[in-house]
Amino acid sequence: MTPNAASSSAPSRRSFLASTAAATAAVAVGTPLLAACGGGGQEGRKEGTTSGKEAAKILPAYVASSVVTPDIPAKNGSAAGFTRAIPAAELKTSVPKALGSGGKLTVMSPFWGTPPKDDNPYYTAMNKAVGVDVAWQNQDGVTYDQKLGAVLASSDIPDVVVVPGWNLMGRIPSAVNAKFADLGPYLSGDKVKEYPNLAAVPTEAWQRGIFGGQLRGIPMPASYVTDIAPLYRKDLFAKKGYTVPGSPEEFLAWAKEATDAKSKLWACDDMKWTAFNIFGVLSGSDKALWWNLEGDKLVNRIETEQYLEALEWTRKLYAAGVVHPDAVQGKAGGDAGNRFTAGEVLVYNQNISDWWGKTAEQRTQNADFEMEAFDCFGPDGGDPTLWAVQPANIFTFVSKKASEQQVKDFLALCNFCAAPYGTKEFMLTAYGVEGTDYTLSKGLPVKTQRGVNEVNGAYDYTGNPAPYIAYPDLPEVTKGMVEWQQRMGAFTEKSSFFGLTVTEPARWSNLADDFEQLEDDVVRGRKKIGDVQQAVSDWKGRGGDGLRDWYRKLLDDNGSAD
């Protein structure tokens, strides 16, 4: 990742947390994130999931890549870490020859910004290296769900289509089953070994690529360790002599001390997401992860004491006046990061990728700027109980109408783009053409303006390596992020539907949609905890108990993925 890559707002596979970062952004603006469509082994099935023995017949064999050794190996579900730029002379080769046939593929993908011209040097070089002539149909990422729905409802779809998990709603999941090809004949079991970079994709990510009982999606892998981190201004903590709080009570006491509204300084922004982690609330944007088998009963997170405790603690922060007034008014999301870098708040929670993004941004303006993520603690100040997030949330599909050769060309493209950090294929995919799209500065690749505009999106979605973090411009941030994940991963558990792609029956799929707004009202003092308890009772009566029975049957019939 180059220092100037922060200017792009698009989710990028070259930052390992791309899929979850995009999902987090969607949550911040209130976009409903629904689980993808699965099946029980029956083509076209519109609801359910596939795991256990049926999934084992479908999933590709796993063969770890040995092409490049990371500086920090993955541990406890973390990403692997690379702290330095690899000199050109040391770059490895993971695709010795072009696997494509020279045929053509049209690919529809979301794009944030102005799409580049088709004949730009980056696209030309990629097509030659892969052996596939790719024609990109880049669509506005902001309105991609609308375009996607319209295209999938038609009889004429592109050869390849990228589908972000947060767009899997309405009729799109059933369209995935109806319109996209089964990749099992090409990838299941040892067949994947023809594509070594795809064979190195973790099995749990492939599990998420099962739709309608068939392996249809090429997944974008991500670490399953919680992607939401409590980020703090280490420089300002040091200046003021603060130590990082180690319990909910300590945090509240510190927050009261640190807040000075007259000086426009508040201890924190909205901390609801961190509260969920502190109190061990089942988390994640995928509603299937909100269910977990506790003893002999399947329980939804909204029914737990931990959920109420997390909301109550967050409410106390607001009531104490330690939360930035813009957050009180509901101005969350990206603005929280701006308040943080402006020095108006000392702590905020966001996707951990912000650690690099904000540091890279601020180092050009403020050499003393320093931030880190502090470790999550439990409700009593002891070890936390954290819950794994889904290990993939962006998928790429090939049309059922594609010829056998087109499917193979598609897989050749995905295999090339899944090349690991430290390879020639990675450098081309991530940075483009040297001298045109990027130059080297003190050994670090730095994108030119052309590279920023053109090497952005597109190939980010057609194949991805196992989760990694590689910020050679800020090696200490890379190290900090990976080690934070490793420490938090030691306390991470997998709920009953971790790794599964589940489609809820339509009659129940929107049951919990109002809870996010209710949560925000409660923590800001506009509603009470009793209102949540009443909403849970109503939820049960409107179908929550029926949905519980449905999920329990899924679990009994299919088992978990773990």
Largest pleated sheet? 5 strands, mixed
The DSSP helix count reads: 21
Shape: globular
- Average pLDDT number: 89
Strand order of the largest sheet: 3-2-4-15-7
- Tell me what portion of residues adopts beta-strand conformation: 5-15%
Tell me the span between the first and last alpha carbons: 32 Å
* Total count of strands: 19
Radius of gyration, taken over Cα atoms and rounded to an integer in Å = 23 Å
Which structural class should the secondary elements be placed in?
alpha/beta
Helical fraction: 25-40%
Oligomeric assembly = single chain
Could you describe the 3D structure shown?
- By secondary structure, the protein is α/β, with parallel strands linked by helices.
- The protein has 21 helices and 19 strands.
- The chain has a 5-stranded mixed beta sheet with strand order 3-2-4-15-7.
- Mean pLDDT is 89; it is low at 1-45.
Write a brief structural summary.
The chain is of the alpha/beta class and 562 residues long. The protein has 21 helices and 19 strands.
Helix and strand layout, with pairings?
Blueprint lengths: L17 H11 L23 H7 L21 E3 L21 E8 L9 H10 L2 E8 L3 H10 L6 E5 L7 H8 L4 H4 L8 H4 L3 H5 L2 E2 L2 E2 L2 E4 L6 E6 H7 L7 H11 L7 E3 L3 H7 L12 E4 L2 E4 L4 H15 L5 H4 L5 H8 L3 E7 L2 H10 L7 E3 L12 E2 L4 E7 L5 H14 L6 H8 L6 E4 L2 E4 L1 H6 L13 E3 L4 H15 L2 E2 L21 H9 L5 H30 L4
Parallel strand pairs: 1-18, 2-3, 2-4, 9-12, 14-19
Antiparallel strand pairs: 4-15, 5-6, 7-15, 8-12, 8-13, 10-11, 16-17
Helix pairs in contact: 4-5, 11-12, 20-21
